[in-house]
Design goal:
Radius of gyration: 20 Å
Largest sheet: 9 strands, antiparallel
Distance between the termini: 46 Å
Helix content: 10-25%
CATH topology: Outer Surface Protein A, domain 3
Number of strands: 9
CATH architecture: Alpha-Beta Complex
Order of helices and strands: HHEEEEEEEEEH
Length: 199
């Protein structure tokens, strides 16, 4: 029994030391990533004029890995120490999908978008810089469709809109005062500070 405990401790010691190595690789690796611990930085930079569909088209041309999985990252044009975009390509339920995460400069998530294999965005979640949700809803052929919900900076629901299949606004309802919802009660909060700093 004592021999098992000693073997377990000896196994744990190198594992705890590897955490620092993994974090170093996550920040400093520049070659194509394999797995979740490496950060592959694209040679072009992000600004507000770049659309999610453009990122997905670029990602489609880049080399992939096992099961066509890809993960590439972009830095801000004006501040190359901050991660701006994390873009993933994968196959979900036999369909190719692109997941585009855009970050504020303080490290909190700015938006989460999903783009289909035809490079058309079909779902978007946007957030304020304090990580409170801003809006979420679906797209159809580039137009808003169905139910869209909007929040204020405290995470309270302020407006709900309904769009037709053609993208025209059918109905809108505002909440005064704003109301708290189940979605915002369980909204995960991130620690302040940038998660990725490129040195």
């Amino acid at each position: 029994m004592a021999l098992r405990k000693i073997a377990f401790i000896l196994f744990l010691l190198p594992a705890t030391g590897n955490c620092q190595i993994i974090r170093y690789r996550m920040i400093h690796m520049q070659r194509p990533a394999v797995g979740q611990y490496m950060l592959h930085i694209l040679p072009w930079y992000y600004d507000s004029t770049i659309k999610d569909e453009q990122i997905a088209r670029c990602l489609d041309t880049l080399p992939g890995h096992l099961f066509s999985a890809k993960m590439y990252n972009m830095l801000y044009r004006g501040d190359t120490t901050k991660l701006a975009v994390k873009a993933d390509e994968g196959v979900y339920l036999f369909h190719k999908r692109y997941t585009i995460n855009i970050y504020w400069k303080n490290g909190n998530k700015k938006s989460l978008s999903f783009v289909n294999r035809h490079f058309v965005k079909y779902l978007e979640h946007s957030f304020y810089d304090n990580d409170a949700p801003m809006a979420f809803g679906r797209y159809r052929k580039g137009n808003k469709k169905g139910r869209w919900v909007y929040y204020n900076t405290q995470g309270k629901k302020v407006k709900v809109e309904r769009y037709s299949r053609s993208g025209t606004l059918k109905k809108s309802k505002t909440f005064d005062p704003p109301i708290k919802t189940l979605r915002t009660v369980f909204n995960p909060r991130h620690l302040s500070g940038t998660p990725y700093i490129i040195r």
